Amino acid sequence: MKISLITVCYNSAATIEDTINSVLSQSYENIEYIVVDGNSTDKTVKIIQEYEPKFNGRLRWISEPDNGLYDAMNKGIEMATGEVVGIINSDDLFCDTDAVHKIANRFTSDKTLDAVYADLYYVSNLDISKIIRKWITGKQKPFKTGWHPAHPALYIKKAIYDKYGLFDLNYKLAADFEIMLRFIDKYKIKIDYMEESIVKMRLGGETNKSIKNIVNQNIECVRAFRKNDIKVNVFLYPLKRLLPKLQQYK
Length: 250
What we know:
By secondary structure, the protein is of the alpha/beta class. It is 34% helix and 22% strand. The protein has helices at residues 16-24, 44-51, 69-79, 99-109, 158-164, 175-186, 211-227, 237-246, and strands at residues 3-9, 31-37, 59-63, 84-87, 92-94, 115-123, 131-135, 154-157, 191-202.
């Protein structure tokens, strides 16, 4: 089973080398690595070019302007030729060298699965060995309860994207939430939970940069429910979404 890993980046020279090395060190060999760069002006492209030969033809990359993070992810998915697609951001890295192998084993042990999700660690920007928050996703529940997988720890069959569509670019902060809601709650794809953390994610994503972004993301989440014809209490949902996250901090 070929697994396509996608990294999208823009001016990520400070962190992308860790990400690339993390992919390169994976014990699972049947990996296609796709890097979608948004026309960076720092040394990001140079770093990608330096590492390309080490992948022995398994790395493909482009560098061109895009319409933001989710547009870049869509480009990567469209480029992917693997049966399964996973996204590892340019400031993330795998927890161990067997992470992708474990994901692949779940798919091969149950060929009816459409997706596999796991947990992740949020780590310090300055010290990736320092865990700040543990996202323990737990077993599947309806999204309206506040539950949803951690997107960087979610692996989905390419056929699901082909059937149900890509990221909706009308969502600037919650397109990952909307696509997971669409696939899992609306279309009822078959998913399996792997009860361990497979990804380390540095703190400081786009959504968490300001209170305004957090509020706007919650507004977009409510919009996502409406778009997908799923009823939710618009007043209680933000609390149900927030409270479990507060309990995840160490």
